[in-house]
Amino acid sequence: MLSSATKSLKRFVKPWFASIDLRLMALCEKFPYLANIYFCLDRSFEREHHAVVAGRRRYERSIQGASTASHVYRLRRNTHRLEKGLISRPLREVFALTYLQETIESFVTLYQDHPTEADDPLLQWSRSVLSEYFRATSQSNAPTLEECRHNYEQLIERLHPSTCEKKPQRRDTTPLSTSIEDMQKLAIRRRSVRWYDSTPVPRDVIDKAVEVAGLSPSACNRQPFKFRIFDDPKLVTKLASIPMGTRGFSHQFPVFIVIVGELHAYPFSRDRHVIYIDSSLAAMALEFALEVQGIATCSINWPDIPHLEKKIAEALNLSPDERVIMCMSAGYPDPEGLVPYSQKKTLDELRSYNQQ
């Protein structure tokens, strides 16, 4: 009886709250600063706020010596910034002074963990770019630059000579054998497949696709994400049942992939959306790379739902700053399985030129 009365009360109160909510949103739209108060009451962004703060805190603690994780991201970012300076027209006599010292600091810190340069492609790349930078700025006698040059050269003297050339270069302009028609065929062929053959997917096939995905563009080349891949049937069943929308077919996924963004890649809150941008760029490349090898995929949405966030965080042992971006199933497609038609937007719906 109480349960029935409670349900009736909820049905009565829900439209009333919805009406108030609409009025509050209209007020917040008119006066943007009120949105801060609104979301103090509505806790929808609570997990994102916490993750951003946790990521910034983890970044700073790492830079201060707690680990080398953030030094990796800082070195990736700053090496890329140096490269952009090296390809500028005209080339400036001196640049990068505001972040050069911290770049050398991260370079030295990471070299202490990887004394053999050949073991770490990041250090190979950074060393090559730093050497090119100091050659390009050899005519400058700016104090900061001279100090950094001295520290860098002292380190290089203790290292083996490097023949690695990972510095700015001319882009390959050789005509591709792949046409736009080929690309369109691939895009049409790739569908969201939910029914799979039971044939196991070889890991080398997946790894080749991940390598392609790793070539996707990334803001300042940080690549703040990881592909958590599962092919153990028990783990696949456990994890694939967590997202919404997989009921009824998740039991037969051969492979389940969770893409996780890492907010400790950033010292500033302004970059909090980059994990979603970079991960999504890589995810699409991953799906195409799997498709050309005969492996079908299905992108699985991951909305921010508190109890599911907690469940998957525990299952994956995620740190507070690690955010699930999306999930993906993969496997050889069942030839008898159907796929939705999914009419896409037309060209005119998708694009405009010059603010038209």
UniProtKB/TrEMBL annotation:
GO terms for molecular function: oxidoreductase activity. It holds the Pfam family Nitroreductase. Keywords: Oxidoreductase. InterPro entries: Nitroreductase, Nitroreductase-like. Residues 189-241, 247-332 form the Nitroreductase domain. Signal peptide: none annotated. Coiled coil: none annotated. Belongs to the nitroreductase family. PANTHER family: NAD(P)H NITROREDUCTASE YDGI-RELATED, NADH DEHYDROGENASE_NAD(P)H NITROREDUCTASE XCC3605-RELATED. This is Nitroreductase family protein.
